[in-house]
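Input set for joint prediction.
Command: fold jointly, output tokens.
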Amino acid sequence: MSEQTPKAVNWMKWFDPRSRGVGMWAFIINRLSGLGLVLYLVLHLIMLGKLAKGPQAYDQFIAMMKTPFWIAGELLVVAAVFIHGLNGVRIILTSFGIGGDRQKQLFLIIMLVAGAAVIFFAWKMFAHAGGG
Amino acid sequence: MYKPRVIVIGAGFTGVALAYDLARRGLDVVVLERGPLVNGTSGRTHGLLHSGARYAVDDPESAVECIQENIILSRIVPEVIEPNGGLFIALNEQDMNYREEFLAGCARCGIPTRELTPRQALELEPHLNPQLKTAVTVPDAAFDPLRLAMAFTASAQFYGAQFRLFCEVIGLTGNHSSQISAVQFNNRITGREEVIEGDIVVNAAGVWAGKIAGMAGNIHLPIRPTPGIMVTYDKRLCQLVINRFNKPGDGDIIVPQRHFITVGTTSFEADDLDYIPVVQEQIDLMYERGCELIPDIKHTNQRAAFMASRPLLDSEAVGGSLTRTFKCFDHKIRDGIDGLVTITGGKATTMRLMAEKTADIVCKKLGWQAECTTKENILHSYREFIFQND
Amino acid sequence: MTENKKYTWNIIFKIFRKKAGQPAHYDQFDVAVNPDEYILDGIERIWAYQDRSLVFSHACHHSTCGACGMLVNGEEKLTCITTFRSVTRNGGTLRIEPLRNFPVISDLAVDMTGMFERMHAVSHRPVIADTFETSRGRKKEREDLLRLADCIECGLCISACPISATSADYIGPAVLAGAQQPGTFGENVLNIVDSEDGAWRCHSAYECTRVCPSNVDPAWRIMDLRKKLVLTRVKRMMGIKEKT
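tokens >
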């Protein structure tokens, strides 16, 4: 629904990809992955706090982290790191006038690399989890 | 001191130029326009700032007006003009027959020309039909229609003129039936009807001038709506305006603008003022005629196709041929209704002159002593246009 | 209304309506069209034959004036050069709305005064030497010839920009692209574009370049402008005087 005048509350529009192109998808995914990494950082600090409680707490924690649910979560972090990091490089390059006319292709390549990384880490992590 | 108010109906080229002239002369001006600026005929002009060469043979009066106004507009509003000149191209023997009277006519009208050999012409314009027989340069130019109007509008606003856009005139009234002193209109933004009073009303509604004049009483205006087609192609295949060497005919002008070119036009009769459908046969004709001048049009895509109705004047004697000059009707003299003047006919290139002549008549009727000052002064930037919402 | 046998498609228009003092809503109109004619033609016919109260902006009908920009199914389009065939099919629905991020005057018409003010403030020259310039380089064609610049000030880029959606102070892609013209900056232009609301506010969404109907490529121009700004700052720090 139109009749939109510029104001800060329109920030939700940032996450609306309808009728928008690849560049906007990159914009959205960069923000989501950024927020995701901040959330991960907070969780990480909470985890470190738990570890201060001694070796038994540590072993319990590691056992939990080998469950599929948490492995999947970690894989999301892997994806976020690759996507956010590589997209950051893409933005740096285009800001210097390099590759701006190929920004769509660059983004697709980034997503493919991130996808490959997730698959690789998934294989490694599930293998370890299986091995015990 | 009391400033008489002039109400101008229509914000086409005539209306905006007139508002500027009158506002410069110190009058209070209000322009009423039912749509946005130049949304009628003026917006859809080919965008050719005529050198007048096209009329030098058959209509020298028009030609002289054109060259003079071409020079003036190029001086006072260069920011909307591509001033690269034009070429007249002859492609066959029939075209060549026109050459001598053309050159003589231009000379008589004071239009500078220079003949080029085909090789010189092709160096200047590599996409021209290589079969061309001769080429003559003329001081044609191309302009952006909306920005030309915005420049006059912004300048008029600077001198105090008010532009009420999206306000549709629905009635002309007065204290008695032979005097117009007020205009009723529908404000299309609020949906409410309003009335404003004025000392004189100028009907500059172009093709719709007859409809407006009819609101004042039993007035018939000899305006013949004459639409024509334009087709735009998506590559800038020429830098100069390209004209065909012949008596004015269909599809014999190509005007470059920005990164595309427009081929025009045709001339036919229509009844419906408000909408003229685009007809495929005419698009095909423009394509054919365009390709004769610039064969590479075959390798472009059509970008746009549009129609606009020119307000041509019927000669008032027994239905004679249509002239391209303009006319100002003082309805007091003509129809016994005072307070109303109609200006109609004409073309974009002579807009400033039409405004000057009309403003002279308006000032005379109002007893207002003021000379025209629009020839010498550079217009304000079109970007200074302000949408007035009140 | 004339029956035209070339009008072989039936299109449902859902048009945004807003009159002063009344709530916004959508009106539906059924229009017979030719698939290769332009959306603006359909809108004009709706006004001419179905609803004279419809308010919309248009002037040149051939992409030089920039007046007829609108949202078509949520996407920025210049309606005079957008064919029905390119956005829908026979029996399809077209949702038509005014551009985003501009004040709505009425229905589909928006007020672009603010954008024109900013273009004026950055001294974008509307008529330029005919040089051909893209992100791959600058090629001088005919220096003795002038032409109207590519940017037609249509506002599509500003409508599509997510930063323009959240900030009225952000200069906007059209204006930043306009400031990028060859040449050195005047002090006041520099202050406008080298500011937190200027070139540094862009977040590379690239929507501006995607929707531009006129080959301006604002995204590239904003990045190019940043390079110029950095060079200008460095030169100043090193005390090198700019030739103006």
